[in-house]
Amino acid sequence: MRSCLTSRVLYHRFMEVTELVDRQIAAYNSRDAKTFADCHAEGCGIEDGEGNTLMSGRIEIFAAYERFFARNEDIHAEVRNRIVLGNYVVDDEYVTGLGAEDGGPTLHAAAIYRVGSMYIDHVRLLLP
Question: Which of 126, 68, 117, 119 minimizes the C-alpha distance to 97?
């Protein structure tokens, strides 16, 4: 049986993990590339579902999303379902406002975030 202290520690970590991912999603919806990139660790890797690297490092994430947001002025991501397991957050995301170049106008995807002590340190995007 877990002690109350253990439960409180787990709840606190749950809140840290989800708040960081929520902050990143809010930056995405605001098209704020700097705040979005700042949610990721310096060496964060973003991969596709097969494990191929799409972006590596905060600077590359910033540059890629700055271009992406400039092309997609009406973009909005909605988290429809979420699973949190330890340091992992798995979001079922529905994105609207995408241009044709980015597979628009809508996209249904899953994002798997691994959260370190202060930043998202790995992302895997499962795209159609």
Answer: 68
What does the block give as tokens for 117?
């002590």
55-83 pLDDT, tens digit per residue, is 999 999 999 999 999 999 999 999 999 99
Phi, psi for 81 (deg, rounded to 5): -150, 150
pTM listed for this prediction: 0.88
All structural domains of the chain: 4-126 (3.10.450.50)
Residues 6+ apart with CB under 8 A from 76: 29, 95, 96, 97
Residue with tokens 């700097």: 34
Is pLDDT above 80 for 10? no
Neighbouring C-alpha atoms within 13 Å toward the C-beta of 46 = 21
Q: Give the Cα separation of 49 and 5 in Å (integer).
A: 37
Q: Do 96 and 102 contact (CB within 8 A), yes or no?
A: no
Of 33, 108, 56, nearest in space to 77 by CA: 108
The neighbouring-strand residues paired with 77 are 95
Q: How many Cβ atoms from other residues are within 10 Å of residue 33's Cβ?
A: 20
